[in-house]
Amino acid sequence: MSLCNDLMTQISAAGISAPPTGYQLCKEDDLELANKRYKLCVYCNGEPDDVRYVQLNCEGSLYPAVVRESPMMLDTADGSGAGLNKISCDERVKAFAYSNASTTETHLDASIVLPDRRTLPDRSAYAGLTILADGQDVPTEGEFELDVGTELRITGPFDLAAHYAALLGVRTLDYKADGAKWHVEIDPNYAVMTILRNHDVHDTRFLFAPPH
To answer: Are 110 and 161 contacting, i.e. CB atoms less than 8 angstroms apart?
Structure first.
């Protein structure tokens, strides 16, 4: 599992088949996940504050996207500033992840050992998850301070758990399930997730934010 600091795009699950009136293609980005190339089209109407729509591989449904600042950007609880944003994307921390269901599409159980002291953001939108800090429940509302070395365990529906982990700065997950090796990579700019099974692409899709 790797951590890095970046912006996270919040993708809504309400897809549309064509750009809204006044929207046109304004940007194309090339994405690389797990050594595979993808294309992402961005549609806008020229107004900087309006919602942009994104489309994976420039085909299929379009989804509204809002860029939000990751909690990784926040100062640590003790005000030292020595937060996770000091960790490079290539640095590994003591962590593991695994699936406890028969398929990776349904359930994820991941544990992260935090390399520094930090404050978790409000998780009220993630009520479908079970989140434990050293075996104790994390409050479902409000911020929650965690000390260095805390083992944070995230359990719940796969996409929801992966999205929360991504907001915390997790960019890759590796685990074994169903007799296979699974690898998940997340693009932090457009919330695109690709899943590999035994080094072959199993699925690539947007990582949807939970409803608010």
So the answer is: yes
Q: How many residues does the chain have?
A: 212
Identify the sign of the CA torsion 73, 78, 83, 86. Answer: positive
Q: Pseudo-torsion of CA 153, 157, 162, 164, nearest 10°? A: -70
* Binned average pLDDT, 10 residues per bin, the chain of 212 residues: 61 88 93 91 88 92 77 37 34 48 68 76 84 89 82 87 81 81 84 90 87 62
* Predicted TM-score (pTM) of this structure: 0.74
- Sheet with 200-206: strands ordered across: 2-3, 170-177, 180-187, 192-197, 200-206
Say how far apart CA 26 and CA 133 lie, in whole Å.
Answer: 43
